[in-house]
Each structure stands twice: as structure tokens, then as C-alpha cells.
Amino acid sequence: MSAPPVLLEIPADGVWLIRINRPAARNAINLAVRKLLVQHPTAAGEDESARCVIVTGNDQAFAAGADIKEMAGAGTIEMIQRGVLKLWRATAACPKPVIAAVSGYALGGGCELAMTCDIIIAGESAKFGQPEIRIGIIPGGGGTQRLTSALGKYKAMRYLLTGDMFTAKQAFDMGLVSELVADAEVEARAIAMATQIAALSPLAVQQAKDVVLRGMDAALDTGLALETKALHLLFSGQDQKEGMAAFIEKRKPKFEGK
Q: What is the pTM of this model?
């Protein structure tokens, strides 16, 4: 029996690692992968044991795009019925922090998947891009919107309209990649960061993520109001009391998400 196209691993307490597992196809995202990339982030959002999520592939590819063979003969109605937007919404809507650990190619749908995450850690030789224009279509998983939000109009247009790839260093310099590491250290660094986040108050972490995402498209005054309300809300929980007591007592806090 062949291995599932997406694997779920628990490399550390509170850390869920979702691994795309189609090495022969450079982890191209087919319908089977899409369904599991909806299932696992959704489950992580509902499971109290999951405090941080990692999405990754293998050394050769994070995901080299959508499975073109599976799409080539499809019509408009069939594409609508496939419900592919669920993939992007499930990852982006996960209330827990999601880290993309990117090695190799992150192209097309793979680049879009990375951009639905909250943090992107990339290996030095990783390659990003939205090459859809070269096969007569455009990105459909948020590429035109998220890439523009990350890079700005003029940089994004340069890559969206040519389909050219850009390096991990370029992505880092343009603000798309959070941290650039040696190729051999990508997964270990992602696990280390996820473990660090998982040890913090899950209530505070989730509120911070929520406020950032909700405030991005809001007026500054609205974002500031959301931030203040979230801060005040945290003072009703035990984690705030534990965190401040530990600080005063000079010990390591133990957060329970209460």
C-alpha cells in the first residue's frame, strides 16, 4: 500500500507537522492532496493539543504547483464543483499559527499555499514563483492578492505577468520570507520555532494572530481598537496571571490555555 499523499507528524509537544508527500511529482497539489490540506489544518484548529502547525514538503520541493494533468481537460463547471478554494481557506483560517517550511520549489499553488501561512522559513536554494501565466491562466489560490500584499504592486506585477521565478534571498529581501536558513536546517528550524511558540500562552498567541489578520485590511483606528480589546480580554484568563507571576518570581511559566 502506498503512503498517503499528505502525512501528519507530531515532532514535538504541541507541534503538528503536515507534510506533502508526492516526491515523484515534486509534491504537485492534486485533489487528494487538497482534501487532506483541508482536513489537517481544520483538525489542528479544533484540537487543544495542537498549538502550532508546520506545513512542509521535502528537500526537492515544498510544492511545485497544481497537478496540471488533472486540470488540463476540466471545464468551468467542473472547476467550480471541485471547491479548490477550501484548501486556501482552511490553512489561512486555522486559528493556530502556521509555519511554512520551504525547501526546493514553491511554485504556483505551492507558493500560494506558503503565503496562506503566518511565517515562512525558507532554505537558501528555495525558489518561489507564480508561473500560471505561462500556461494561459492566472493564479487562483490568492496569488494575485497575497503576492501583491507582500511585495507591493510593482514587484508583484513583475512576477505575475512574466511567470519568472525568484530566489529565497530575493523573497527574503522583498519581505515574503520571514527567515532564511541553510537548506539542511529548514525543517529543524521550523520545528524549533514552532516549539518555542507552542510553549507560550495559546490564548495570547491566537489573539495576536487574529488581531494582526483582522487589522491588516482595516483602518488604523479599527486595528488599534481590536488590539486593545484583545489585550483586555486576556486579563480574564489564568495564562496572564501565570505569565506575570512567573516573571515576578523569575521562573519559567507554564501556560495551560485557560
A: 0.94
